[in-house]
Amino acid sequence: MAKLNVNGQVIDVEVDGETPLLWAIREQIGLTGTKYGCGIAQCGACTVHVDGVATRSCSTPVSSYGPEQKIVTIEGLAQPGAPHPVQAAWVALDVPQCGFCQSGMIMAAAALLAANPKPSDADIRSEITNICRCGTYNRVQAAIRRAADGSVNNG
Question: In this structure, what are the phi and psi dihedrals at residue 61, rounded to the nearest 5 degrees?
Fold first, then answer.
């Protein structure tokens, strides 16, 4: 049994302590926006925020977390009634193709902007290390720039 603080709710999760956080989020809690990609924390499809830091959830066991850590998934990123600026920019620029990696990309971008509200293109390239098979990196970078400069409609 684990107690996790996910999207502002403390939830009891019945899993083995070595279960990766990703599987507790998807299988026990039922939040399927966070994706499984590689299982070795390389691709970033599983990115969530833990205390505001972009964290790859596929390789860290649930036992590493408790109710004091605030875990935010893609489902908890937006404010009620309004998308997060990164989500709005993603829609405005039609970023995704297949969309599989996009929740992880959005979470990584949101964490980047929270830590660095005006990142340079070099900052974006060095911090957003998520892998996109479709290769939408130019649109990802443009959407992050748009979210940073505040030129998106949030609702």
Answer: -70, 150
Q: What is the pTM of this model?
A: 0.94
Domain boundaries, the chain: 2-76, 85-149
Count how many Cα atoms sit within 13 Å of the Cα of residue 32 in the half-sphere of its side chain.
3
CA distance 142 to 144: 5
| CATH architecture under which domain 2-76 falls | Roll (3.10)
Q: What is the pLDDT of residues 41-74, one digit of tens each?
A: 999 999 999 999 999 999 999 999 999 999 999 9
Query: What type of residue sits at position 22?
Result: L
Sheet of 70-72, strand order:
9-13, 2-6, 70-72, 47-50, 53-56
* Fold observed for domain 85-149: DNA polymerase; domain 1 (1.10.150)
Contacts of 50 (CB under 8 A, 6+ apart): 65, 69, 70, 71
